[in-house]
């Protein structure tokens, strides 16, 4: 999404400069400007060169000699980027309306985050890069209790920290597989020798034939299993081997919602019916759907929303068919929808799995 904003800004800047207009400057700012997000935040955008400018083009040429750069748009001066504004290597000041890829909810160089990172106890944690599953720091439990556990979704009691969105989803997929297989065996510890032997050859029963159901337009990451449940753009998936997993329609409503109540209800009915149909179809093929993976809002896929009723019915359908419900809040969690977790708007009878 940031790419779109840069391209649009580039077109605006190029047209203005071609017409002989002076670059935007603080002298033309409104008299009563809003208070900045953080001290030092620019008052408004400033376009000084083409975008990408000569410095970005030179850096791109340099970097492309050693690594693929097909998606690089501009190079950023992170020392000068503050608040809502990104400053590129040519001094263009760009309003970042999309917080990069929904990854900077507090903007650039927020002083509280900078202060947190330079504290000695935090610096040592970064430098020593602890293997948390084997050698966590003595204060690790207390750190989790005073941070992530304070915003734990209602009904959930544990947390696993991961480094990125894709790996968070991959780890959640594994948790679903473990949970489902344990239900089948009836024990988490009594593992048949056949399972231990066959998994080393990627064969059942140790490597069971399970499926995850996902939705048209979804985006869950670019690693292998996360890519298998991603369906937003061909560029993400082209030439990558994948799994034969079911893909259901995600609601596409007519707006304004108040004018199309019955039409949108029929759309919910259609999507839920297809979820149910696919789960039965794959069960008959001997490939049970063990998890339903969905975003509360399809963000990268185009800002598509499901109704509260859709998500309540989706959870009920998953439970009825013995599957877990995974809500991917990589882009919607952390407060941007007005609640800490977007799904809290839906009124689900139970917490997500």
Automatic annotation (TrEMBL):
One cellular component (GO) term of this entry: mitochondrion
Superkingdom to which the source organism belongs: Eukaryota
Gene Ontology biological process terms in this record: gamma-aminobutyric acid catabolic process
UniProt keywords, alphabetically: Aminotransferase, Pyridoxal phosphate, Transferase
GO molecular function: 4-aminobutyrate:2-oxoglutarate transaminase activity; pyridoxal phosphate binding
Cofactors: pyridoxal 5'-phosphate
UniProt keyword Transferase, yes or no: yes
Pfam families with a match to the protein in the record: Aminotran_3 (PF00202)
Catalytic activity entry: 4-aminobutanoate + 2-oxoglutarate = succinate semialdehyde + L-glutamate
Family: Belongs to the class-III pyridoxal-phosphate-dependent aminotransferase family.
Full protein name: 4-aminobutyrate aminotransferase, mitochondrial
Provenance organism: Hyalella azteca
């Amino acid at each position: 999404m940031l790419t779109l904003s840069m391209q649009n800004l580039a077109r605006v800047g190029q047209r203005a400069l071609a017409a002989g207009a002076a670059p935007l400057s603080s002298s033309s700012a409104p008299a009563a400007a809003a208070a900045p997000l953080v001290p030092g935040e620019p008052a408004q955008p400033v376009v000084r060169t083409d975008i990408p400018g000569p410095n970005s083009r030179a850096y791109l040429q340099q970097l492309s000699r050693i690594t693929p750069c097909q998606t690089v748009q501009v190079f950023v001066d992170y020392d000068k980027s503050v608040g809502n504004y990104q400053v590129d290597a040519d001094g263009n000041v760009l309003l970042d309306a999309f917080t990069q890829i929904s990854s900077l909810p507090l903007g650039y160089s927020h002083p509280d985050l900078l202060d947190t990172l330079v504290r000695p106890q935090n610096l040592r944690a970064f430098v020593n890069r602890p293997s948390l599953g084997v050698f966590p720091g003595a204060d690790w439990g207390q750190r989790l209790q005073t941070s992530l556990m304070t915003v734990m979704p209602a009904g959930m009691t544990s947390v696993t920290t991961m480094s990125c969105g894709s790996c968070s989803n991959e780890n959640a997929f594994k948790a679903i597989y473990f949970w489902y297989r344990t239900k089948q065996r009836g024990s988490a510890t009594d593992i048949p020798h056949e399972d231990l032997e066959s998994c080393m050859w990627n064969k059942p029963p140790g490597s069971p034939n399970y499926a995850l159901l996902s939705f048209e337009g979804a985006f869950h990451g670019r690693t292998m299993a996360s890519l298998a449940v991603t369906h937003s753009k061909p560029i993400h998936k082209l030439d990558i081997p994948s799994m034969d997993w079911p893909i259901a329609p995600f609601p596409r409503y007519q707006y304004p919602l108040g004018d199309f109540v019955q039409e949108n209800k029929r759309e919910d009915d259609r999507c839920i019916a297809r979820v149910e149909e696919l789960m039965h179809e794959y069960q008959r093929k001997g490939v049970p759907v063990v998890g339903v993976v969905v975003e509360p809002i399809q963000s990268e896929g185009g800002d598509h929303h499901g109704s509260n009723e859709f998500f309540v019915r989706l959870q009920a359908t998953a439970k009825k068919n013995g599957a877990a419900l995974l809500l991917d809040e990589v882009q919607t969690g952390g407060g941007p929808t007005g609640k800490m977790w977007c799904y809290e708007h839906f009124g689900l009878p139970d917490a997500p799995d």
